[in-house]
Amino acid sequence: MYTKLFYIILFMSTFFYSKANETISYVVEQSSYNQKPALKVFAKFQTSRNGVTNLNFPSSMWGEESLKNHFKNFRTEEDSEILFNESEDLIQIKHADSLNYINVSYLIISSENSLEIDFVNYFRPFISKERFHILSFSLFVTSSLSMNPIYDIDIHWKNFDKDFLIHNSFNSNITHQNIKGIERDKFNQSVFIGGDYQLDEFFINNKKIVFASPVEWENIERNYLLDLVTKVIKIQRKFWDDYSQDYYTTILTPLSNYQDINYIGAGLTNSFMALIGDSSKISKDDILNLINHELLHNWIGVKIENKNEEKQYWFSEGFTEYYHFKLASKNCLSNQMESFFIKKINEFNYLLNSSQYNEIKNDELNYDSFWNNEGIEEIPYWRGALFAFYLDLSIRNKSDNKYSLDDLMFDILNDATNNNQTIDKDYFVKVASNYYGKDFGKLFDKHIVNGELIPLDNLYDRNKLSYSYQTSSKGVTYLKLLNDKNNLKIIFN
């Protein structure tokens, strides 16, 4: 009787212990390493009860390798043994069983030869005297007492000059932050900046939006960026009918000495960050492509998550591209207005047809191939966008314009928000079949799983859209959707 009761109590205490949020405290200070600017981080973690506490700092993430090269002078205050495991991104600390907390410190440095953020190190830490720009996964060591940890995090930004702005995915200009109940993945996918940025605040339905960017741009008007971000966020929140976020920030950083058209962005937790080559060659539509696409990731990719990241890029990247130029055209965000949509459809169709990887199977689009092969990394964008176009018009055609792909996307968002549903093949086929019909699975397998080119001629004929066959200078024959009023009327009716 007593033995059984003991085990029940032990089980219950272990259960409640594992369910409690893990608490982590960080203090971040300016520092130096080999006479170069650095950030010093002090962290306090709850310990495991078996005398071995596991901490995490990634060696690779989002195509960046050897991230631990930025991680220096790891120390503990308590008597302990530190074991590094490079392959598992693991730091093991062996300590006394009776220890309740462990205190550590370490330095984060920039790339050894980097004097500024560039297109080689855009997901790596950048730290200078004037500015820092770091993604959370390469700034903060995290812990893992449970399988899917949820954290209560305290961050104290200490000993920074009063004019040194502190800003991130969770708040602005607050030197002592409390972040409650955040999943580890959500925390890792956030961005932290400081220094010579300027903030502009505005509100949509009483929800705070912060635009962060340096004042000085050589070739791009900062006011244009602010105006575009404001318009795009309003349009997207209206489209999704989603005003649930109390706080959101867009962080745009100029990169000097770039003569070509270069930009990169990422949709993150409560935020979007982008690095833009400050070149005279960059156009307003280039900037629109970046901002509208990446801000859409707040829903497609962040709120609606992939079950397997690269395996569902046909959705999170391809469908995001499709809604980028669909919303941009319907709301006249481009100088080309509605014709922007047709231009992008034709561009993607040509690019997919002309690629040597145009029929690569979806299973071959994995972490290594996507992040390390420039010829492959664009395929899910082009293929997914054209598949979304095909599905959009097919749903409208089958329902006599009663439904569209929009209705399917709203259903998916609702499932993601209320049921924590993620995107994978089985779920998507099931929910899309409600609109397309029971044979949708065969269509999906043919064009997404097996990668066969999408028959746009059949789609155009069914919807009475005007098109012609074009042959490029490289000998690639593809369908070109004509830019005429009839086509625009049918597509946007």
Automatic annotation (TrEMBL):
<dbReference type="Pfam" id="PF01433">
    <property type="entry name" value="Peptidase_M1"/>
</dbReference>
<feature type="domain" description="Peptidase M1 membrane alanine aminopeptidase">
    <location>
        <begin position="229"/>
        <end position="392"/>
    </location>
</feature>
<feature type="signal peptide">
    <location>
        <begin position="1"/>
        <end position="20"/>
    </location>
</feature>
<dbReference type="InterPro" id="IPR027268">
    <property type="entry name" value="Peptidase_M4/M1_CTD_sf"/>
</dbReference>
<dbReference type="InterPro" id="IPR014782">
    <property type="entry name" value="Peptidase_M1_dom"/>
</dbReference>
<keyword id="KW-0732">Signal</keyword>
<protein>
    <recommendedName>
        <fullName>Peptidase M1 membrane alanine aminopeptidase domain-containing protein</fullName>
    </recommendedName>
</protein>
